[in-house]
Every structure is written in structure tokens, then in C-alpha cells.
Design goal:
five-stranded mixed beta sheet; alpha/beta; 3 domains; Immunoglobulin-like
């Protein structure tokens, strides 16, 4: 199963789950927001996790949220405008080891391992040995649309194949579970990109930041991607997951060119 997001999953990514009665606190300055914070906007109650890569990640439902947190005490409120400047990176998956999950269209029950990896629990005996006699109360149904956020891993034939407690302890936070890293910064000035060549590892995010006073873009020469117009102080982030070379330029200043090399 891959991570292609169905149309319904896209809806979940955009709106997240609403928290009834979650208070709207005074808006916090976006400059004070850092990796690991929980945020929401002023108009809608959807809660997001701010990743180390600079993206915000959606809790698709309350069940997912409560595998990671016990309450909403640390949720910070941003203005709707500030929240909109943080790009969405995807959905949060269940905390490893916390629960088992299944979907209506699949009779199998799965344990959740690191990075949203699903592992089929092959027998009731194994489930009891890992989760206790009340194992069947520790299974959540996940909508088919959100099942695509998970990857398939190896089957669990014996209790020695998976340690729920250890898996949960290893997943100290969502950054760790998703292996999120700080983005590579491409500084854009009114004269040039800071470097002519940026070499990165596949799967790393790149953040283009306009430090100049004029409008700029970073647009792939083959038009396969682009930041759109960035005014002073604006930024745009993108993941580069495939090895190769991407030449890019500024649509407003043809002499501004550079290359991203993905290894």
C-alpha cells in the first residue's frame, strides 16, 4: 500500500478534525512558533502539529490525536492569516504501539510500528501476548480514506516480533516518528540565490526564503514545480524525494539561476 492520498483523505488534510469547545486564546505571534508546537487558527478548531521541516501536519481524527496527547492544554492559537503561511505536509498517523487498527474492507488487524508502518497481527494468541486479555478493546477502525497514509510492514507471527511498549517509547514525538529534519534553506536576495548549487539527500525539504525587497520566484526550468511569487519575507517549501538535478530560475530576473542536486 502506498501513500497516495485519496480525494477523501485530501479533505481530511485540509480541515482536520474539529475540537468541540476548544477555547480560542489570544493569537500568538508566528515568530514564537517552533518545531513540536500544536497550533490552530482563530476561525476553525482543527489542530495541527508543527514539524521540524517547517510544515504543519493534520490529525485526521480525535483518536489519532489522543494516541499522542492526553489533552489540548498546549494548543496555541494563530491568526488565520499566519496559519495559512505554514504549508500542510500531510497527516499524522497513530503513535506506534498505542493501538491496533483495522478498516472495514480488510479483515486483518494491524499493530502500528514506527513511521506509520502497519504490521498484521496474525493470531489472537499473539494479540493477547502483546496487548493483554483486553486486546480487542485496543482496536480502532480507521476510515478507508486514511488507511493510505500508512505503509505495510512485515507480519507479526509471534510476540517476539513486536514490542508495543518499546515502539511507543522509541517514538518520542511526531518529528521522530516521521523522521522529519530541518529544511535546507535557499536564501533569495535581490541579486541572486545565495549559492549556485545546492546538494541534498533525497527526501529532504528545501525552503526558499525571499530576503530581498523585490518579488522573486524559484521556478524549475522544465516548469515541473515552482514557488510562485514570493514577496519580501515570504517563503515556500518543497520536498525533493527523487535523485536527480533540478535547474531553476527567477521568473522576474532571468539572470538569477541555480541548481539543486538530489543524491
Amino acid at each position: 500500500m502506498n501513500k497516495l492520498i485519496s480525494a477523501l483523505a485530501v479533505i481530511g488534510i485540509i480541515i482536520g478534525f474539529g475540537v468541540h469547545g476548544l477555547p480560542v486564546n489570544a493569537a500568538t505571534s508566528i515568530s514564537s512558533i517552533s518545531s513540536g508546537d500544536l497550533v490552530r487558527g482563530e476561525s476553525f478548531s482543527a489542530v495541527y502539529y508543527v514539524g521540524k521541516d517547517g510544515f504543519r501536519y493534520v490529525f485526521p481524527n480525535d483518536k489519532t490525536y489522543f494516541t499522542w496527547y492526553s489533552n489540548f492544554d498546549t494548543v496555541k492559537t494563530l491568526s488565520d492569516a499566519d496559519l495559512a503561511t505554514i504549508q500542510i505536509g500531510g497527516n499524522v498517523t497513530y503513535k506506534p504501539g498505542a493501538k491496533m487498527i483495522k478498516i472495514n474492507s480488510d479483515p486483518k488487524t494491524y499493530a502500528v510500528d514506527d513511521g506509520g508502518t502497519l504490521r498484521w497481527v496474525m493470531s489472537e494468541e499473539v494479540a493477547v501476548s502483546m496487548y493483554g486479555s483486553a486486546w480487542n478493546t485496543k482496536i480502532d477502525d480507521v476510515p478507508d480514506a486514511f488507511f493510505s497514509n500508512y505503509d505495510m510492514g512485515s507480519d507479526i507471527e509471534t510476540s517476539g516480533d513486536f514490542d508495543p511498549v518499546g515502539a511507543g517509547a522509541d517514538a518520542s514525538d511526531i518529528n521522530h516518528d516521521k523522521n522529519l529534519m530541518a529544511p535546507i534553506i535557499v536564501s533569495v536576495t535581490d541579486n541572486a540565490y545565495e549559492e549556485t548549487t545546492y546538494t541534498i539527500d533525497a527526501g529532504r525539504a528545501v525552503k526558499f526564503v525571499n530576503y530581498g525587497n523585490n518579488k522573486h520566484t524559484a521556478t524549475a526550468d522544465d516548469e515541473s514545480w515552482g514557488t510562485g511569487t514570493m514577496t519580501a519575507g515570504q517563503s515556500f517549501s518543497r520536498y525533493f524525494k527523487t535523485a536527480g538535478e533540478w535547474d531553476f530560475h527567477c521568473n522576474y530576473h532571468s539572470d538569477m539561476t541555480a541548481t539543486i542536486v538530489v543524491e
